[in-house]
Amino acid sequence: EVHLVESGGGLVQPGGSLRLSCAASGFNFRVFSMNWIRQAPGKGLQWVSYMTSDERTIYYADSVKGRFTISRDNDRYTLYLQMNSLRTEDSAVYYCARGNDGYFDWWGQGTLVTVSS
Amino acid sequence: EIVLTQSPVTLSLSPGERAILSCRASQSVGSSLAWYQQKFGQAPRLLIYGASKRATGIPARFSGSGSGTDFTLTISTLEPEDFAVYYCQQRGTWPPFTFGPGTKINVK
User: Fold this and answer.
1) Could you report the per-residue pLDDT of B36-52, keeping only the tens digit for each?
2) Partner-chain residue, chosen from A44, A60, A62, that has the shortest CB–CB distance to B87
3) Alpha carbon of A65 to those of A13, A45, A47, A70, B45: distances in Å?
4) Which among B87, B48, B52 has a CA at the least distance from the CA of B67?
5) Residue A25: C-alpha distances to residues A4, A68, A98, A112, B61 (Å)
6) By CB neighbour count within 10 A (0-12 exposed, 13-18 middle, 19+ buried), where does B74 fall?
7) Of A61, A103, A110, the CB nearest to B96
8) Distance in Å, alpha carbon of B85 to nearest chain A alpha carbon
9) Among A13, A54, A20, CA closest to A37
10) What value does the mean pLDDT take over residues A4-11?
């Protein structure tokens, strides 16, 4: 069965950095695109970033462009999100999700990021 | 960016009743629309993709329809586990992928 397990969330001050990880298992990670999607407390879903299986194509939401960096290690079956210059509005549960033809067919349980002084 | 709106915001129904949820796109997305279910404290789960195709393991009481700008998710007979928030998502024009604000089905 597909499993996605996020880690790396926590409390960070505005302007700080965090690196999220998503460990994948149960499927061939090397052939799927992957995404990060976030959800602020009590709010809806916001797509954050996308990376193809071969790492050649990357997209970001405008709100994080220039501050967040998506990457992956296909040997370790792991997806990453480096988050710099964090703002209070970046506080959210961050989910990694497997991409399948533009839809998100498997999701991790999420990791909470809180940006606060 | 394609904006998705969902109605109603909240739906109050009883188990056994039919639920009809609406999603409208600011411009045509063809049939490139999905529906997700999110229960409290859980990650979203893909229900419907391609406007009308059920994802793996999704019960037949869930059905999707529509194309262009207007879409519907129907739950034919609500089970107790169906009370949750439902989101639509488009991949017709991306990036960005966008989600609707959600419809919450609660117990009447």
Assistant:
1) 999 999 999 999 999 99
2) A44
3) 19, 18, 12, 11, 27
4) B52
5) 7, 24, 11, 21, 30
6) middle
7) A61
8) 10
9) A20
10) 98
